[in-house]
Amino acid sequence: MNSIHFTGYNAQHTKDFVFEVEEGYNCYLLLVTHTPARFYIDGITEEYPAHCAMLYTPHTPIWYSGTTDNYSDDWIRFSSDETFVQSFPQTNRPFPISDPDYCHNLIQLLTWETSLWTGTSRSFHHAKTDGCTNESNENSNSVTAQLLRILFLKLRDDVLHHAISPHNHALLMLRRQISNNPQYSWTIQNMAEQLHISSGHLQLLYKQQFGVSCMNDVIDFRLRKAKDLLVYTEQSIAEIAEQCGYKNVEHFCRQFHKNIGATPGNFRKSITSHQNLERFPFP
């Protein structure tokens, strides 16, 4: 059974638009963006390209905002116990959609269909299906359920298609290059150019493929190399910073401490002390 609470299409907002529901809703929220947007996920705010979908599950914190002068989206707030919703392969993380016009038209049809039995013709609707008993409402419920099912099957195809995207091999090769050469001057732009895709598309694909943003991955590989150099060489911290791609040693020390929990010097001392204890244990 499905219960559509609110729907909206072609919602228009200014660049400073921010939508936040700290505790989330007690129902699902399906969002389909027409323009680039920022999403706050797992403690990180990242920009995603236009034409992405996001299915927020009940009670999941919600935060997203616009990035361009005009932000636009379609959305549906609804409850459902249908398998095609509850077993959807990707939730609480944006994914690209291959046919945004088709998805937009389906949401528009859903909005129009619900307006037939809510007595409103606005592009913003409250549409509860619970308690509908007459024949026209039953027919509307059936049509609404079918439209929702078609929409979710289309979105499911997009998620599964992305899982076998032709970019996967290129992403794996890119990550291998970063791992082998973290000291290079990696930027989102030069990585995107290497794959012949936009910067926003790269960030979306990389995060979905590896569960981490591309620049955070660069930092992680740089710090792994730094730890190895601190442990196995006697090079100075300034020399290690340079070998790991940092032009500023202070920036290196701050980033090392933030991610590792100790300064490079203290990390080296702690490792050296531990190795000495293992080599010459107390009697």
Element layout with pairings:
Layout: E1 2-14, E2 18-21, E3 28-33, E4 37-41, E5 44-48, E6 52-56, E7 62-66, E8 70-80, H1 83-86, E9 95-96, H2 100-116, E10 124-126, H3 135-163, H4 167-180, H5 188-195, H6 199-210, H7 214-232, H8 237-243, H9 249-260, H10 264-279
Antiparallel strand pairs: 1-8, 1-10, 2-7, 3-6, 3-8, 4-5, 4-7, 6-9
Textual characterization of the structure:
The structure is a single chain. With 283 residues, the protein is an alpha+beta fold. It has two domains: 2-163, Regulatory protein AraC (Jelly Rolls, Sandwich); 167-279, Homeodomain-like (Arc Repressor Mutant, subunit A, Orthogonal Bundle), CATH 1.10.10.60. It is built from ten helices and ten strands. It has helices at 83-86, 100-116, 135-163, 167-180, 188-195, 199-210, 214-232, 237-243, 249-260, 264-279; strands at 2-14, 18-21, 28-33, 37-41, 44-48, 52-56, 62-66, 70-80, 95-96, 124-126. A six-stranded antiparallel beta sheet has the order 9-6-3-8-1-10. Strands 2-7-4-5 form a four-stranded antiparallel beta sheet. α2 (100-116) packs antiparallel against α3, α5 (188-195) packs across α6 (199-210) and α7 packs across α10. Residues 118-136 and 277-283 have low confidence and may be disordered.
What is the beta-strand fraction?
15-25%
- CATH evolutionary superfamily of the largest domain: Regulatory protein AraC
Would you count the extended β strands for me? Answer: 10
Would you state the CATH class of the largest domain?
Mainly Beta
Uncertain residue segments: 118-136, 277-283
